[in-house]
């Protein structure tokens, strides 16, 4: 018969699961919703009253507030699951958060960007705590996290392929048919530096998803490709063949879009992560060392952020 203590533990575990699921859902929303740094009209609203189909700085900060709220719940209830690695990460993230809060108090632009950084850092730590361990809440949280990675990856693949194969050709055709009027509306002359820059950028066929920038799309796609591919390789014997094939397909297509976009940083991260993931399947010892190496990378970034903040006028 369950005691009051067992019932309390079960309720807390359910709360951790709900909070970690909410963090995953918000992260998925950030990948599938457009964000505008500032709210403005690129056309006269009396002619085109269609609102921006996305979120601005305020909407972004609302999501950050919810992320931090759910992350606090998980970190408080699962503090013991952090271990030495998680505790070290927390100590490294806190100074970065203080720096972001200090500079974010100066203006809204720094504030909403810093809030997103803090939400991402503490949200990642919370997911690390929720997913660590072998208890039921960790297993269920891992299942949700994998489902979110797979679904977001699939959505980005569909969106990216549509942009590359269909949307870009339609956009270029619309530009060529209305070239003079478009430049005139901006006050540009055909052949001017502004017009040439605009045309060169427009003619680049890239997958940008809902991010608007190919480098951000490539970074997210590389992360999903490595994560989903690694999981499929490690657990291929315990998984259903169809599920394993679906995960590998998403991983390969995400990686292909990264290569297609051509971003050097994302390609380097993809190659490094894929190499470590493949090598870790060959030896348990290498798996342990590779895990430490991969976890050390965000630690190094957190330290770099803190060091960079000490020299606000430096050109690096």
Beta-strand content: under 5%
The biggest sheet amounts to: 2 strands, parallel
Classification by helices and strands: mainly alpha
Described by the principal axes of the CA atoms, the overall outline is globular
Number of helices: 11
Mean pLDDT: 82
Pick out the low-confidence regions: none
From the N-terminal CA to the C-terminal CA, the straight-line distance is 63 Å
The helix/strand order is HEEHHHHHHHHHH
Helix content: over 70%
Strand order of the largest sheet: 1-2
Number of strands: 2
Computed over alpha carbons, the radius of gyration is 22 Å
Overview of the structural elements:
The chain is built from eleven helices and two strands; from the N terminus they run αββαααααααααα. The protein is globular and about 75 Å long. The protein has a two-stranded parallel ribbon. The model has no long low-confidence stretch (mean pLDDT about 80). The protein is mainly alpha-helical and about 325 residues long. The protein has helices spanning about 5-30, 55-75, 85-105, 110-130, 135-175, 180-185, 195-200, 215-235, 240-260, 265-280, 285-310, and strands at about 35, 55. It starts with a helix and ends in a 7-residue tail after the last helix.
């Amino acid at each position: 018969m369950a005691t009051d203590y067992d019932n309390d533990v079960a309720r807390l575990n359910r709360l951790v699961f709900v909070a970690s699921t909410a963090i995953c859902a918000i992260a998925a929303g950030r990948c599938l919703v457009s964000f505008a740094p500032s709210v403005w009209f690129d056309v006269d609203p009396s002619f085109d009253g269609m609102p921006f189909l996305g979120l601005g700085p305020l909407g972004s900060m609302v999501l950050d507030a919810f992320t931090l709220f759910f992350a606090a719940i998980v970190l408080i209830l699962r503090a013991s699951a952090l271990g030495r690695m998680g505790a070290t990460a927390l100590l490294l993230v806190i100074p970065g958060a203080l720096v972001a809060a200090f500079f974010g108090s100066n203006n809204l632009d720094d504030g909403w960007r810093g809030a997103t950084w803090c939400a991402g850092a503490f949200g990642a730590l919370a997911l690390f705590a929720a997913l660590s361990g072998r208890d039921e809440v960790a297993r269920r949280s891992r299942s949700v996290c994998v489902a979110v990675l797979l679904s977001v990856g699939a959505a980005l693949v569909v969106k990216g392929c549509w942009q590359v194969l269909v949307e870009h050709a339609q956009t270029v055709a619309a530009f060529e048919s209305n070239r003079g009027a478009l430049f005139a509306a901006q006050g540009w002359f055909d052949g001017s530096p502004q017009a040439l820059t605009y045309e060169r950028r427009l003619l680049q066929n890239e997958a940008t998803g809902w991010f608007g920038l190919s480098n951000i799309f490539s970074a997210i796609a590389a992360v999903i490709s490595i994560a989903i591919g690694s999981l499929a390789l490690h657990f291929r014997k315990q998984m259903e063949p169809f599920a394993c094939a679906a995960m590998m397909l998403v991983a390969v297509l995400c990686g292909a879009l990264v290569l297609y976009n051509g971003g050097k940083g994302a390609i380097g991260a993809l190659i490094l992560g894929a190499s470590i993931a493949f090598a870790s399947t060959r030896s348990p010892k290498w798996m342990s060392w590779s895990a430490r190496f991969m976890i050390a990378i965000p630690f190094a970034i957190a330290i770099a952020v803190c060091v960079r903040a000490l020299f606000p006028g430096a050109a690096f």
